[in-house]
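Thread: Modeling a multi-component assembly for a lab meeting

Hi all, long-time lurker, first post. My supervisor asked me to bring a structural picture of a complex we are working on to next week's group meeting, and I have zero experience with this. I have the sequence lines for every component (920 residues in total). Could someone generate the structure of the whole assembly? Inputs are pasted exactly as I received them:
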Amino acid sequence: MAGPTPFRGRPLRRFEDERLLRGEGSFVDDMRLPGMLHAAVLRSPHAHALVRSVDASRARAMPGVAAVLTGEDTAGVLPNIAAVRREGMGETPIPEHPVLAHERVCYVGQPVAIAVAEDRYAARDALDLIDVDYEPLEPVMDPRAAARPDAPVLHPGSSSNVVMRTAAGAGDVDAAFAAADHVVRASFEVPRLAAVPMECRATLAEYDAGSDSLTVWTSTQVPHRVKTYLASLLPKAPGHIRVIAPDVGGGFGRKIEVWPEEVAVAYLAQQLGRPVKWAEDRSENIVTGQGRGYTADVEAAVASDGRVLGMRFRMLADMGAYFLTSTGGPPGNAVQRVAGPYAIPAMDVECLGVVTNRVPTGPYRGAGGPEAAVLIERTMDMIAAEIGMDPVELRRRNFIPADAFPYTTATGLTYDSGDFARALDRVLELAGYAEVRKQQRTARAGGPLIGIGVATIVKASGGKANVRNGEARVEIDAAGHVVIYTDVSPHGQGIETSFAQIAADLIGVPPAQVSVRHGDTDMLATGGGTTSSRGLAVGGSAAYLALEQARERLARAAAGLLGCAPADVSLADGSATSGSSSVSFGDVTAAAHREDGALVFSASYTLPANPFAFAAHAAVVEVDRDTGDVALVRFAAVHDIGRVINPMIVRGQVHGGITQGIGQALSEAMVYDAAGQPLTGSLMTYGIPTAQTMPRFLLDQLESPSPTNPLGIKGIGELPTVAAPVAVANAVMDALRGTTTRHIDMPLLPEKVWRALGEMA
Amino acid sequence: MAHAVRLTVNGTTHAHEVEPRLLLVHFLRDVLGLTGTHVGCDTSQCGACTVLVDGAAVKSCTSFAVQADGADIRTIEGLATGEALHPIQQAFWEKHGLQCGFCTPGMVMTLVQVLERNPDPTEAEVRSGIAGNLCRCTGYENIVEAARHAAAAMRAARA
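Re: Modeling a multi-component assembly
Sure thing. I ran the full set together rather than chain by chain. Output:
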């Protein structure tokens, strides 16, 4: 007899949506507390300068201004935000971010002072009355120049601008190059990007002196991390700190942070005894919320049959002027992920972290993955061009075969499962690869240049070993309402729905009877938040373990009611059944309650190893010969993400992830001038994709369940953003194969492409 | 210097004294407490603040409250009829047209105008119609789906 249809795999409509659709969401800036003050931040207009003096007396005297905090007030009072120490940081002193700049500013946008007033307009007015005397200094802007031994050093007392070295590799690389028939060399630049969540950062803090408790609502992906840091940074640590992430309007990695403004706002609320709210504007968000920023030199040793024998990567990561808590993370990911889906026996990879006079970087969707994918996947296409082989065939020859899992790359990643060739075949079918190749051969002279590009990539989910643990608690009341508390802190991922589906399959509760509560440090002792595509793989698994305990208990209660053994009870679709007799889910929970008084099940879970998801993307572009404009005519993508809980949500993640990747490929980059001024500091100049420039996506998926976790999950959040940029870049360079230009760094803006077209071979 | 404004929002008339520089979006959010209308940028690109002013989609971060004196304004909070969502809201729910939900109110209000002007838009027309509204989560495809689904539902309801 077939069992009940599982909720897993159903495109259930989201429980999150109705209040958001009615305008009843509660984002931080929507909140208002009695007596609340508004904060505004004065930021450095210079990339590098001495601060001779800050005079806030006029601002403090302004009617409606409650306080102005400057670096002079916080020096020696608020400690710097301690960087998370990571492998490769060695003994080098890591420049830590001060909450407010004191004596020196090191990037445009660095917080210098913060004004607090009765309303947001008055707070902003107060900033105009703060007089800062700067003495501009020469900025350090070019990471390659900054890394040279004779370069001027940014931080006094430091011996070098290179503050971090991270490396990976194995095998005899020199022997590989000695044996190579071809050596392919290339240099790349992966620009800085702004994450641009639609909701900018915002923080509201309230301190209650009577109970010595501080509550902070902040637009974050990591409430527990913010709590931990506040406890150590505030000079008079409150007896109780509670951090709440209410509705969060997107994060994409740049809300995995403890920001100076969050610390300052909490400190001010405590000092003033009144709630303080700060909401940044978009320009502040763009000049402060950035990721990526790499240059790299790559060499590949290739045999005449296309096998890659060995590779060297020398990378520089632009860390910015200081390290915030997540700044050191992405380079460590990048050095391992350059292995891609290939069986390359010898690799030697190094990334140096260099300080420059820019805002600190941090993870942005993919966090080391997209930058690594650009390097390996562009190089694969250059190898193919060099040896005269189709890039698809070259990839096939180098893939890790489906029967080789688990497979450990030369960079030290152990892939759990996959079938790369099958996913690639499917995406070629979707994109019409063979037809496009034929079309290229028969294209009319003078028509648009057609290009097709593929990218095949692997992406870990769950994060590094020290963050792969999660917590969950399940509470069930007598009437059968189920509450799942999770340490996952979502901002669009739909876990209120997918966790309810997991619960429905395990304990038979109707999904609509499940509440999923998240983003509040008072709910659970620890928590990793939503980072590293960990939501379902870690958080979902923790919930699964707690729900398994609940199932065991409920099966026992149902057995009592049905007069059978617990093993004979099936819990599904709102009832407990044994043979032909059944009772309702509510009857079962009521019975268990009568016996136990309360039904509470807690679990913590540690993901033993990362699941690795796989993506094969293919882009078809048309390049306008006269303008260099790139039109995306088709975009196909196949993802192997293990088991799928809600396919509708997965598709949504895929659409958004691809779109951000296309933005990176075609229009997005943080551009600075030589003086360190950002030239793309607003949405007028920083070009994120619009509805008009995006194509429809042709999608499919494979399910190679991961053996690493009970749900068989592989994360989907970041995967598409890793593959899409370089698929598009490969397509554009394919369209330009008749020119003498071998490579153009992203973004592939019309001007750059047009210049390459001028060099037609 | 305060200016008196009197305007109707979602059917209720409000009279307030406001600073001439007060943006309409801050009037709605901070004075009236209607926080469904969001602020997503400071250069009129993102459209999260879109409301209907006398029936026309307007970016409320780019107009002053005093400019709306005497106007009839509709915000996301005034779109549903009690329990029943507006067909566009309903379609966003069914077609997964939102993820984080921050751009959603502005996106929906813009589409009210798009579908009023063109009850049967092509995909390209929908994409053009929402080109002034940015979403960073969805890649737009499901929003476009939702818009066309809503258009069909609204046409059927009129037929």
